[in-house]
Amino acid sequence: MLDDLPNTLQSIHDRERVRSDGQVATYIPELAKADPDTFCIAVTFVDGTSHVVGDEHAAFTLQSTAKPLVFGQALQIVGRKLTVSLTGVEPTGSSFSSMVGLDEIGRPLNPMVNAGAIVTASLMPGSTPEDRFEHVRAAVATYTNQDTTIDEAVYRSEKRTGDRNRALGYLLKDKGTIEGDVEETLDLYFRSCALRATTQGLANAAATLANYGLNPHTNERVVDETYIKDILVVMLMNGMYNYAGRWAYEVGLPAKSGVSGAIMAVVPGIMGIAVYSPKLDTYGNSTRGLAVCRDLVQRYDLHMFGSTMHPRNP
Ligand code: GLU
User: Fold this and answer.
1) Which of 42, 135, 218, 240 could form a disulfide with 203 if both were Cys (CB 3.0 to 4.6 A apart)?
2) Does the active-site annotation cover 243?
3) Which domain does 272 fall in, by range?
4) Mean of the pLDDT values across residues 14-31?
5) Max Cα-Cα span within the chain
């Protein structure tokens, strides 16, 4: 059914390349320097086969696409009960950096908003900040199948200007949701967001989730299969900012978007899709990325409640 995918990706890329709507994120000053025309689409199947079209060498910072990966590590390290008791799994209906994203007891509503991701960062293991960062970096490297490093300029730019995240961090500490040194936890959060990947690397990460936690290229396990549904559910409900409901309706795949212009989407048991193009709509989602995902889902009937995903087979 997906035999013509390489040609399809090329024709979608040719068509969407001329799309001009959207704005590059500027609230992290360094992100404003991104070339708005950069555009790449990549797909990795669970057997490790990959297809990529466009600017395949362009590397970008993961930003919020790191959130599901770090959430997976938190589940893996402290277990489901504690992680979910500290981060919640409810949709927020407000923006990623919202101060409203906490419930009445000071718990973030879910781990896909910044407050929740600051909590999952606080759960990373290690006796020093460097150990904790290395844990995240190594996990992301296993997901992406790339030897990832941080983009120092983006990291410093966000650290210098990230006062809203700083406010969230201190609020979470005040409520007792996170423990320890707030600045250290924030530093780990900023560094996780500044980890770099190419579109192919992000498609590999999505394919690792589609492959129930095993990297399809190396067969290395990065997260236990039992936690995949936890990750995919919060991605489906909360992965696309305030567009999450429309996304579930139109595309219907677990996904995560980042303000660098990255989107990854998971077709469980089949493949991971990634798109990078830095122009964002008003919700913060890549405009080309949305168009590509909508097109692929319609063309191949990939919506999770579509008949291809659930053939009538008594
Ligand atoms: N580092 C970004 C922030 O905290 C991530 C936002 C995003 O990609 O949604 O503002």
Assistant:
1) 42
2) no
3) 5-300
4) 96
5) 58
**Tokens representing residue 216 in the block:** 């399809």
In a domain, 306, yes or no: no
- Residue 67 a catalytic site member: yes
Ligand 1 atom nearest to 194, measured from its CA: 1
- Taking only the tens place, the pLDDT of each residue in 246-279 is 999 999 999 999 999 999 999 999 999 999 999 9
Structural domain count, the chain:
1
Ligand 1 pocket residue status of 158, Cβ below 6 Å: yes
Helical ranges in 123-211 per DSSP H = 129-144, 152-161, 163-174, 182-193, 199-210
Q: Is residue 267 part of a domain?
A: yes
When pLDDT is averaged across residues 33-38 and rounded to a whole number, the result is 97
Ligand 1 binding pocket includes 63 (Cβ within 6 Å)? yes
Q: How far apart are CA 275 and CA 270, in angstroms?
A: 17
The CATH number linked to 195 is 3.40.710.10
Nearest to 80 by CA among 225, 222, 205, 209: 225
Looking up tokens 């087979």 gives 313
pLDDT for 103 = 78
Does the Cβ of 68 fall within 6 Å of ligand 1?
no
- 275 is a catalytic site residue: no
**What pLDDT score was predicted for residue 106?**
79
Q: Does 307 map to a domain?
A: no
- The question of whether 170 is a catalytic residue gets the answer no
Does 117 reside within a domain? yes
3-state SS assignment for residue 119: helix
Strand partners, 274: 42, 264
**How remote is the CA of residue 39 from the centroid of ligand 1, in Å?**
20
- Choose the catalytic residue: 241, 243, 251, 276: 241
Taking the CA of residue 27 as reference, the ligand 1 atom at the shortest distance is 10
